[in-house]
Amino acid sequence: MLFMRKGSATAVIPGIQVEHLHEILAIALEHSPHAIMLERGGIVVHANQAFANLVNASNADDLIGREFSAVACSHSCKNSGPECNEKTGKYYQHKCVELKLASEKMRIHLAFDVSERRRMEKELADTRKLQSFGFLVSGIAHDFNNVLTAITLHAGLLTSQLEKNTWSWRQADSIQSAAERGTALAGQLLSYLREQSPDPEEVNVDRSLRQMVSILRPLVGEHIEFSVNPHCGKTTVIMVPSQLQQIVMNLVINARDALQDGGRILLESQNCLLQESNPYSLAAGEYAQLTVADDGHGMDEPTKARIFEPFFSTKKPGKGTGLGLFTVQNIVRKSGGSLSVTSEPGLGTRFEILLPKAPAIRS
Fold it and tell me: Smaller CB count within 10 Å for the chain: N or C?
């Protein structure tokens, strides 16, 4: 019979022999998804395969007889908060239980994989940050919209008093157009925060790019070579017009910030035909491709892996919110498209966006 301890009493499970207890427990330990290791006098006397995987050992038997300090799965391998294991990239919660058997002392070391819990906690924290940020931005957007309305009104008054097509008239007209686009962006931001989507419409990709050139060139600066090559022709996409402008604006400004000492930025559009099998996980069909490329300092793999996280920014404090690429990615996904990035340190960065063509344009 197998004797099971329950509180201070001993329970008996009929039909199971006591001598089978070790075999049953050994099987249970070996198949446990948690890492388990027994230490006696600083020497490993037992470890399951999960623990071997944790310390990057091929076989649990190879650990038996080795010094505990040589195979410890963390700096302490004792009771502690979650720690990231550099060998696996996962987070583990450690627990150490001390036992006294006759005159010997033993320790049982347990490690629980809490990576998924950590991921969910981080997502929850990010969500709370976004909610708090949303309340702040909503108030600012309302005030900013009022400022833009005043600018639009006064610019309109100027254009009505100036002779058409003169230099002064063109400057006033540019101010009015920029203020109107800013108003549209502020409205889109407010709609996004209220979870209300503005009505999408057919947007000519090339026309939108040409309209933005007069705004983008001053932002980029004279020390950077800025090329705009629209090649989509009459191709249109279905989306909110200000969202397309927001995508381009964010990517171009990021490219500019990567070129502190000058360089080149390319903004390009072209038509793209995807087959059934493609690296973008998109349906086969016709797409408009937007490309923003620079020859700046580029990014390493750890940085590139985080650029779409909310509030993650490589810029100095006060220079960026870390929401630009996060917003771009959301817009592209909601539009049924795909966003990819190629970058290496010293070799620049290239963003490619695919947006489905409007049905009326499909051949």
Answer: C
Three state DSSP letters for the chain: CEEEEECCEEEEECCCCHHHHHHHHHHHHHCCCCEEEEEECCEEEEECHHHHHHCCCCCHHHHCCCEHHHHCCCCCCCCCCCEECCCCCCEEEEEEEEEEECCEEEEEEEEEECHHHHHHHHHHHHHHHHHHHHHHHHHHHHHHHHHHHHHHHHHHHHHHHCCCCCHHHHHHHHHHHHHHHHHHHHHHHHHHHCCCCCCCEEEEHHHHHHHHHHHHHHHHCCCEEEEEEEECCCCEEEECHHHHHHHHHHHHHHHHHCCCCCEEEEEEEEEEEECCCCCCCCCCEEEEEEEEEECCCCCCHHHHCCCCCCCCCCCCCCCCCCCHHHHHHHHHHHCCCEEEEEECCCCCEEEEEEEEECHHHCC
At residue 342, does pLDDT exceed 90?
yes
Asked whether the CA dihedral 242, 245, 250, 251 is positive or negative, the reply is: positive
C-alpha of 70 from chain center? 36
Q: Please say whether the beta carbons of 187 and 199 come within 8 A.
A: no
For residue 240, what pLDDT is reported? 83
Q: 41-61 pLDDT, tens per residue?
A: 788 888 888 888 777 777 878
Query: Phi/psi of residue 282, each to 5°?
Result: -115, 160
Residue 339: its pLDDT value, please? 93
Question: pLDDT digit string (tens) for 76-94?
Answer: 555 566 777 666 667 777 7
**How far apart are alpha carbons 248 and 35 in whole angstroms?**
49
- Contact (Cβ atoms closer than 8 angstroms) between residue 42 and residue 67: yes
Using alpha carbons only, what angle is made at residue 354 by residues 353 and 355, rounded to the nearest 5 degrees? 120
- Please identify which residue in the block is written with the tokens 């890492």: 35
Does the predicted model carry a pTM greater than 0.70? no
Cα torsion through 337, 342, 348, 350, rounded to 10: -20
What six digits make up the tokens of 93?
Answer: 């919660």
Q: Bridge-partner residues for 110, per DSSP? A: 36, 95
* Separation of alpha carbons 132 and 247, rounded Å: 24
